[in-house]
Predict the structure.
Amino acid sequence: MKLKILVTAGDGIGPEVTNEAVAVLREVASLGGHTFEFDAKRIGGVAIVQDGTPLPADTLAAALDSDAVLLGAVGGNEFNSLAPDKRPEAGLLQIRAALGGYANLRPAFAFKELTVNSPLRPEIVDGADILFVRELLGGLYFGQPREWNRDTNEAWNTMRYTKAEVVRVARIAFQLATKRRNKVTSVDKANVLEVSQLWRAAVNEVATEFPGVTLEHQYVDAMSMHLMNQPRSYDVVVTENLFGDILSDEAAVITGSLGMLPSATIGGKVNLYEPVHGSAPDIAGKGLANPLGAILTGALILRHSGGLEAEAAAIEASVRKVLEQGCRTPDLARSNPQGFAVLSTTEMGAKVRETVKTQLLAVSS
């Protein structure tokens, strides 16, 4: 298998965690006889400083010429005074729009070894395995008109969806559910918002194509509560852009750390992959960052852009194995560090690579 992967490491801890993800992917390529070609370009704050824009033209061109894009994280406090379209986050929104990926996949699963890290009781989170499918190109983040009128002290954003936009992301959610536990939960606010009424009607229509999949609807406010008190009730959760952003971050409570969450954006010209966590500038360069979300994001690259299911599963199994062995990064060792081996970013990456090698060699033999 040949894969051309663009790495846009971004800001803060982005370079640190993407380095470890790339190292794991290189290990997989070496062991499996695959050819993974990596290119590096700038995005976000580092691009603003060096190129004067959060998304340089050569970065976008390289992305469109790749099989997959691995992004670290963007953002920094020093850019907060800039206009929204000039900030690092604008580069992320621009590359998402240009690549055309409309379905953001955010797995949130509870590792038994990390239930102690969750403020929820272990019997609530243990065994939870949710796949969020977030619509990524519509809603409040992209709807027009949008403005902050400083003269009148007013601001407005527009939530807008077409039926076609809802249908295409809902169809992906149902397709993924057929490979999991055959249940889809659609989240909206149809008791108040006309956009959500359109959303619900379109999802109901798609459901008729998948008679083997159970569909339920939840209002977003109720869902935010149920996600915390009964997370094991959910399989695939599909929702619009803003609701999906908030709910999938809330799900970090289930996993024990935001640093454990990977994501993939599919459906466009080129798939875009990124860990869910932010740039965390306060710990950048200190070796404290958790690389497991980025490493698990690498597994999604192999699964969705490379069709390498066995290799993707080997990475995921290796992360679980490392946790079973008591290895932790600082964010995972806060609740109960006794007996844990607290590793730096690079040490954790090396441990996962070592375990991946063992996993893949066992499979090949």
